[in-house]
Amino acid sequence: MVFLGPPWVLASGCVMAALLAPQQTYASAFDVQGLGPEGVAEAGARTTSAEDGGAAFFNPGSLALGQNAATLAIAPIVSVATLRAQDSPLPFEDPFGITLTASASIPFEGPLANRLRLGFSGHFLPTTALRLLVRSREQPFYPYYDNRTQRLVAVPALGIRVAKWLGIGFGANVLAGVQGPAKLEKGATGAPEPRIDIAANTVISGIFGIRIDTTHRSRIALVVRQSFGIPLDIDTTADMGGVPLATNLKAPSAMFDPLTIVLASGFDIGHFHVEGDISYAKWSDWQNPFLTVQSTLPGVNLVSRSSPRFFRDTMSFRIGGHQPWRTSATTSLVLRAGIAAEPTNLAGALQGMTNLVDGNKLTLGLGATFAKHVLGKTVRIGFGASGQFVSGFTQDKQPCQAVPCPVTTVAGPDPNRPSTGITNPGYPRLTASGALFSFSLGAGVDL
Amino acid sequence: MRRLAFASVVSSMLCTATIARAGAPARFGHGARSTALVRADVADTDPTNASVQNAAFAAEPGARTRVGYMHGLFDLRVHDQSANVRDVAGIDAALQIGIRLPASFSAGFALAAHLPNTAIAHIGFRPGTEPQFFQYESVLQRATFDLALAARRGPFAVGVGAAFALDMGGTGTTVSLGQDAQGTYADAASDIRLDYRAAPIVGLSLNLGRAAFGTTYRGALAVGLAVDSDIRIALAENPLNGTTSITVRGVSGYDPARFALGARVTVHPRLSLHAAIEFLRYSAAPPPVANVTLDVRLGTSPGRTEVEFVAPRFLDVLIPRIGLEWASPSGRPGDARKNDDRRIRWAARAGYALEPSPVPHQRGFTSYADATSHSFALGAGLGIGRFWGVDLRFDIAGRASVLAARTERKASLALPYSTYDVEGKTFVLATSVEGVFR
Amino acid sequence: MTRTVLCGLVLSVSACGLIHDDEPLAPFPSDGIGAFQDATPIEVCLGTARILAPTLATGATALCVPSGQIERLCAANADCTGIERCICGRCIVEPCQGGTMCSGEEVCRGKRCTHGCAADADCNAGERCVSGGCARTCDTNTDCHHGERCDALDDVCVVSLCGSGGTCGLGSECESVAEIGELREPSYLEDEPIAFVELRRGTERAIYRSSILSPFHWRIEPTQPVLHIPGETIVGAPSIVRQGTHLYLYAAVGTPSRIARARSTDDGMTFVLDVDPMLIATQPWENGSVGSPSVVDFQGATYMFYEGGKRAGIGLVKIMGPVAERTEKNPILLPESVQDPVFWRQVTKVGAPHAMVVDDSVRLTFTARGIEGFAATTNDKSLPPDVNDSIGLAATLDMKTFTLFPAGPVVARVVNLRAYLGESEASVRRLRNGVEMVFVSSDASGEANTGLVRVLGRGAAN
């Protein structure tokens, strides 16, 4: 057993750094829809079992302990949502994407031979790299689902096989925040001319994973994914007929994903593999899913109203497993299933103007993978389906009785009679429920 | 096969580099060798540079990866005042994999990415009546990504690929400023999309040994901006009550279609002469400034003056490039090695390019600044042999460009910048390290 | 070693967009042809008093300051406390009378601008509501704002006006805070921190020299007019040019107006008038008067632009020693030649020229009266734009052919969506990076003068 001391860690860090590809990357589609047919079928409980490219997201430490065979897989995924709020359907925007995963050992020789393994997990939208969709405060929507998947996602990772039984890995989620001024200035023509200087600055956060194979048939793993989101900060200034207008739009974390810590344990019972994951997600760091507006007009300064703390931390549980069968000398079939339970991330605070909805979620997954050896390579066709059922949400809104109105109440236009003429869509009662179904069909090859 | 697998992983990572375009690599070169040869290496480029210089070279057998860094300093001046053009700097990363196939065929692919230090992307527009070096601003401040696939049989190779960019659009942003019983409030909703755009890349090469020829074509690419903003105001007794719609349309950082022909002649076993001529189709360029329209529907809507800038009538240009490469007796640093060949290899390089300006005589309110540029480059490479299964090579280059002084005098004295001088210098330093896996 | 070098190289360059560049796209300075930004008023002080146009007068020009009350120096209102304002470099309350409008949300109560109130609770700690305005409680004068005294009977700070509003008692001195007059025809002295300006008080007009303490603060020094002409009460429209060690002042003198020249050897503190006038009206278009001179040295000769009649047009003469010869084409600009069917309509007047040499050309800034804007609209009707004064520009290479800026005025303001303001009598000069312009601000009619304002060209730094 070779001990990987600091020089080797440094070398692996170098390679990872050298190969970092700053992209609009994020893991949301993997969290919400699932990663590949296997991830969909096993309800995401793949922290100890994923050793292919999907391990870049599930656990870079598992990536390190993968077989030396290189893998490449592509799998379209589509989701159908039956989410509703106030008896109106809530669309699941951009439900179709394509997942691409790949893994391979870096072909070093000598001391580094078969020590370093690269992995990649990506989610691509067909025509769009990013769609930033921020709702107005009154609009009812599920912050858990809304605008968390409309993004090109790429997670490159490097796994280091420290020992035959120990793998550590590092992945990078790289985002780009958007900030800068957009001004309308008076030009030499006398007409307004724009000066726009918007930059997409890189925001980076990491995934760290470790897997320990305690025995040939059991393993434990720990994964930490840093929280991140897209920061937005746009200043616009304009002059409208001699009246200045200045507006700042800010979102500290659009398309937010929380700090997530996953502790997993996997067992092989005969050929049957089962894994249980416990995840902690620090949703409480998410201020809110809205744009903060600060606008200056002559004699008036307007700022978005403050909101209560919407979100709370959650603990979720996943169990997944798969059973392979060798159907012939060159073919095999793997059946997969999984179940996950995740409580709502809404803290239950009474909302005023806003109408965020969510519920406890139960996910059931099922799927299969068919593999065949062709020309010395293994080709796989996989299918996975899952249904995530969201429990009902109900909240009775409180009308404001007298000014000044608390932020947890809704009010009409008349300050003398604030409880009348209320047009908030969630008043008097906000209700929501629904489900999200995801289907993924993919193909891959072990090179 | 391991190399192929490894490369496929790396290529997947690089694939998702967003907001990619030809930008800085197309101007200064991708990698230190190409920079030192002022991009005259169309007929004999490094395989890792295939997707930028000539896609046909992606078919070279082997697996190569290159990482480098470039930094460009600009001192560009209009009428003796600095134009405040940002420096450009970032990482250049590239990968190339080629495999031998039966019947003297080989095939491969190559990826190249340029990743700026300060931002992945810049969408920038200056006011239309402000002097601006449009060739040196937004177009260079962006991450770029180019992909090429190629096949080769014998001396002839052909490659195709794509360069990628993103447009910014969507239904836009709505800002609502209002008041209710709780007081005033400000709210906003936004729907912004970044859609993919791609331009084709095609390359051909013919290697006859002592001479080689190459040709390459890349389509035009830019970042389009189409953003609508609605500002709805409903406040007590405010003159701006109503809706103001602001529409901004523009094309930032236009990179023209380009076609290049190149040749390489080995005049001596250790001396190669590279030459290329490149055609850039700037005549199809849209205005590099944004157009704004205001639709104001207030209680009292002010009278407005709006301006839309006409097409700039940029000129197509032909750029001649010439480069020299003098190598060590043991060969060039990038050439293939036998397993037991541990000799140090080196190369010294120099290049010159004459880059005419596409900016025509200025006549109206706009004052685009540019001038014919003379570029000189020097560089060196060092191949140090194999370590842990990787043949390592280092390259460095410096390129200095001088803008020939140019004076613009518009027909009307009473136009902004009716007379102005343009001058400047740029300096680019590039370093790279390449590894070849066997 | 190799590994270390490799890793160091890679790590050192692995920035990948992580280095945030917060520096925005720096604007390139305008060359002074259009693209002027927002106007900022200039405070011009005569002694301790700020010169206020009659339309801005608060009805009180001086107040009694208790002896020994120490004033605080300031550069801006933010340097002062409470209701004090920074007036001519020191913090002092702003006196007012009657129904005068105070700035911001303040009201005129107790003869000074202060915060309005209905009860003591509406005021800050240590203040009381007195007659609808907040006033500090006090034991001594030192508890009060500068310019207030402590009323021993009510234990609140009060203001006493003086000057035309009364006299001060023992223990106080009358300090002037406002001088009522119209500032006109400003003229920068090249790139020096000096300007000359005409001050109209009643029917009298005189030329004063100002030190430019900062871009928005001028101080009249000396406090006496720099040019005294016996028997003349109208001396104005200065144009100043330095030639060698001498300063030459060209001014409009008398009624009907003629143009005279004076010379200074003490840096503009005093001038000695030439015996004969430089130019008198002789041409029909001049309507019997010539004024508003602007002198410039160009291509080895000295030229003077002037206004004929009351903004009937702009003429040009070449100065040859003590005499001025009209150029071949005279006038060079008339209202009809400035008019444009789209950008500047119904132009009826043009005058107040200002000339500046830029490289190998001369830029002529002038005032014209017309309509540059477009109608505002409400739900049911169209609101036509007001006729107003605006600043135009023409340029020439040879003093014969003048080319107009093709998009109407180079400076024209609108406020509150449809209210056009007047801009006239501009003076322009180049800064190290950009240009600045000072002009007379008024309402659209041109009758209500509101003082001097300064605008910067886009991208210029103060």
User: How many β strands of chain C by DSSP?
Assistant: 36
Strand order of the largest sheet of chain A: 1-4-5-7-8-9-10-13-14-17-18-19-20-23
Shape of chain C: globular
Query: What general form of chain A does the structure show?
Result: globular
Number of strands of chain A: 23
Order of helices and strands of chain A: HHHHHEEEEEEEEEEEEEEEEEEEEEEE
Oligomer status: heterotrimer
Considering residues with a beta carbon less than 8 A from a beta carbon on another chain, report the largest interface and each chain's count.
Answer: A-B, 105 and 93 residues
Roughly what is the average pLDDT of chain A, rounded to an integer? 87
Question: What low-confidence regions of chain C span 5 or more consecutive residues with pLDDT below 50?
Answer: 1-16
Radius of gyration of chain A: 25 Å
Q: In the CATH hierarchy, what is the superfamily of chain A?
A: Outer membrane protein transport protein (OMPP1/FadL/TodX)
Largest sheet of chain C: 7 strands, mixed
Strand content of chain A: over 45%
From the helix content, strand content and strand pairing of chain C, which structural class follows?
mainly beta
Distance between the termini of chain C: 54 Å
Describe the structure in your own words.
The complex is a heterotrimer of chains A (447), B (438) and C (462). Chain A has a single domain, classed as Outer membrane protein transport protein (OMPP1/FadL/TodX) (Porin, Beta Barrel), CATH 2.40.160. In chain A, 8% of the residues lie in helices and 54% in strands. Chain A contains five helices and 23 strands. In chain A, the strands form two sheets. Chain A has a 14-stranded antiparallel beta barrel. Chain A has a two-stranded parallel sheet with strand order 21-22. Chain A is globular and about 80 Å long. Chain B has one domain. Chain B is built from four helices and 19 strands. A 14-stranded antiparallel barrel of chain B has the order 1-3-4-6-7-8-9-12-13-15-16-17-18-19. Chain C has 462 residues and is mostly beta strands. Chain C contains two helices and 36 strands. Chains A and C meet through helix 1, strand 8 and strand 9 of A and helix 1 and strand 33 of C.
